DNA sequence: AATCTTACTGAACCGCGGTTCAGTAAGCGA
DNA sequence: TCGCTTACTGAACCGCGGTTCAGTAAGATT
């Protein structure tokens, strides 16, 4: 019966929702279960979020910000960029521990038919991109990485309306750092899906090696 | 009122189900809609497949086999391996045309909590892997590619129980060809997700360039 | 033509679960 | 102490949609 402030309760409910999606999947998500997890009535959940749909959308955003906060912590550490990058790569891939991952499979499929969620994911992705790009840029300035515009665009040198972009934080091809970050993130996502869907077919440790190689080749560090 | 053989009707229904999932998403899939799409009664759908769940599982398998059939066609063409590989890469990435893609977002998220679907996806993935590995192996034998065991595993040279595997069709690290195929597939999946979820943030053509570069570096072809 | 199999329908069933709403009480300010 | 705001509940509502089932007729088989 303990009354809490609206914001505190909302946060509780969001956390419970994320846990629920994480363990049973979005498909099986019921507001009643979320409420039961906190010993509350289903009506309260609807009271704070007006609809289940809104609850889910908020939960995705909340989960995303949680992960980002940890990522920024790693990215902002007082260490050489090489090490920070490695730690980011390692932490990004799904493991038993920290980062919730299965929720993003649901988020992706939801985003395809829900404009709200799509834009949420877009924002989150841009922030992720900024985190990676920041570390890479640090490494370039420290002389750890050598990023050349190299073999970026292969076949589409024709119709790029704005060849140069002034803002280095956005995922615009043309900025070599940004491109490297995007490619690394894509590879990470692809590997993560495999890890989740195909179980232990390929060892997580092996995958970490693969991304590291990939990053090395993109960032001009000699492999092997 | 036209009666059809059970197998023909089943196939029709599966195709309709795939279309429906593709356009409205698994979340919103209703058996009534599938039936309506063919001008049939919902009961008939349940008559052929006993449950909606089974229908969806069958639809995933069917969609997967469709895509694979086309992939095998490309892979088996009478062309140099380099060209076949490029065409595979290009065709794999989601585009307006052929290959259905959004359905796989739903398939992935479903697989996380459905053993049946998970094993279906596992089988499909193994077949995809075999297709890519086959083309790569052709290229190696023809001298187009130079695959060395190179920088495969970076940090886990310690605990590989079975260092050598005899079957070259499986995704076992240790076989350099198989490893290359797995890495390429992972990158393709990651790029595809971005293309679908983030819309036209990065051009499809640009991504094709990225995968090509990646494949080139894995297959020992000099870039740029 | 008679019969048997089987694809197919219509209508009803029914449980599930999100949402509503009238009412309760906990905290807080005066 | 009174009263006002507001977090919170319980029960009922209700529409949606998967599934059931008894019945129909199309096509094959003889």
From TrEMBL, chains A, B:
Residues covered by region (Disordered): 149-170
Protein origin, superkingdom: Bacteria
InterPro entries: BetI_C, Homeodomain-like_sf, HTH-type_TetR-like_transc_reg, HTH_TetR, Tet_transcr_reg_TetR-rel_C_sf
Keyword DNA-binding: yes
Keywords assigned: DNA-binding, Repressor, Transcription, Transcription regulation
DNA-binding region(s) from the entry: 30-49
Ranges where the HTH tetR-type domain occurs: 7-67
Protein name in the entry: TetR family transcriptional regulator C-terminal domain-containing protein
Species per Swiss-Prot/TrEMBL record: Brevibacterium metallidurans
């Amino acid at each position: 019966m303990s009354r809490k402030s609206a914001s505190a309760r909302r946060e509780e409910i969001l956390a419970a929702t994320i846990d629920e999606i994480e363990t049973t999947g979005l498909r099986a998500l019921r507001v009643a279960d979320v409420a039961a997890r906190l010993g509350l009535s289903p009506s309260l959940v609807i009271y704070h979020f007006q609809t289940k749909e809104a609850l889910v959308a908020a939960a995705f955003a909340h989960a995303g910000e949680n992960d980002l906060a940890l990522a920024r912590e790693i990215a902002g550490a007082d260490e050489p960029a090489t090490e920070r990058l490695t730690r980011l790569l390692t932490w990004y891939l799904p493991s038993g521990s920290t980062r919730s991952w299965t929720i993003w499979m649901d988020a992706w499929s939801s985003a395809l038919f829900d404009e709200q969620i799509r834009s949420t994911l877009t924002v989150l992705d841009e922030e992720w991109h900024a985190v990676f790009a920041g570390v890479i840029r640090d490494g370039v300035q420290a002389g750890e990485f050598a990023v050349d515009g190299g073999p970026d665009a292969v076949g589409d040198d024709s119709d790029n309306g704005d060849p140069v972009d002034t803002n280095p934080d956005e995922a615009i091809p043309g900025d070599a750092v940004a491109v490297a970050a995007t490619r690394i993130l894509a590879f990470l996502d692809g590997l993560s899906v495999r890890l989740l869907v195909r179980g232990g077919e390929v060892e997580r440790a092996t995958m970490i090696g693969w991304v590291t190689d990939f990053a090395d080749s993109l960032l001009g560090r000699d492999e092997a």
